[in-house]
Fold this sequence. Notes:
By secondary structure, this protein is an all-alpha fold. It has one domain (66-213, 252-404). 76% of the residues lie in helices and 0% in strands. The chain has helices at 2-35, 43-63, 66-130, 135-161, 163-190, 195-211, 256-307, 316-338, 341-366, 377-387, 392-404. Helix 3 runs antiparallel to helix 4. InterPro entries: Chloroplast_duf. This is F-box protein.
Amino acid sequence: MAATLQASSLLCSSSSRHYSRTTVHATFRIPKIRISLPNPPTKNLVEELNVRNVFTTITAIPSTSARDNEETSDTTVIAELYAIMEAVSERIELHVIVKDQRNNWNSLLLNSVNTITMSAAMMVALTSTTGELGESFLALKLAPTLLYTAVTGMLLVMNKIQPSQLAEEQRNATRLFKQLHTQIQITLALGTPTSMDVKNAMEKVLAIDRAFPLPLLGGAMLEKFPERVEPAVWWPKQEKLQNQFGEKEGNNGWNDKLEEDMWNIVAVLKDRDMEDYVKLGKRALKVNKALAITGPLLTAVAAFGSASIESSSHGSGAVLLGVLAGALATVVNTFEHGGQVGMVFEMYRGCAGTFQQLQETIEATLNEKELGKRENGELFEMKVALQLGRSVSDLRKFVAASNTTATKEFASKLF
């Protein structure tokens, strides 16, 4: 029994000593691992690193060549579109300022012309009560003559530039530049723009600049009394319109019925809407031209009448001429510039231009024979309906009615 206990104690002590030595040995080996150089890589690690290097080399090739060029190209296109959008924003602000300025011209010049004309007419009327007072009579005779002469010159300039029509031109330019600004934003938001988008945006900016110029001198101003009345054109000519979402497969929402409906809408726009607004523009132009000639003519006659006054007893006819011509000139000028007949003419011309643009857009889309390159047919039909002030179902009913009946309904309900 004692021998057994002694043997057990020896085994325990030896195992404890071995455990302590092992523990001490382990505690001294851990720092060696931390401060020693790493072990040589194993064969599996070397193979893994080689695979990674090959993979990195393969994936790095396009990133340093074609992919970088593509990213640089996309970045350049986006930067160019943002530059164009900034220029468009500046033009919007500029046209708004000029529109307000020219609208003020119309109001201030009209008030000034009417005030001067009525003052001259009252001076002419006073000459009949002065008798032959020498210098007083001469002053009342010369003052209205000078006033009428000055008003005649002011009216010639005012009727030449047509401030109300100029203001309407700037309103149209502001609206179109805002529309272009929105289109550029949509192009940037939809996906990756291309150099063709940049080219189209530049052409649209320059086309609007040509259609609605800001300068009045140097022959840049639009002719206010043209020989022929034509729709306003503010868009570049484009033979085909491609889908900005990319080429699609299949019929892309198009069918024979939809194409036939679009051609019918083109015919109605050309024969009814555009023709009607061109006729209205011609009438407005004739009225404006007659008023523009009559106003200065009446003030010139009034100036002649006031200058012909000799005395209260012998100049009653000249007094009557000076007073009546001045009063009629005030009425004519108020009707022309207060009624903004020039603005009405520009509005009719702009409406006809809107229909012509829609007509050319439909024709350019339908002339693209590959359906995948067109804009989606359902989306295109909805856009046409909205531009005409109709719903899609209402547009289809209108096309069906125009084919079966002799109705003279216009395509547009908006204008």
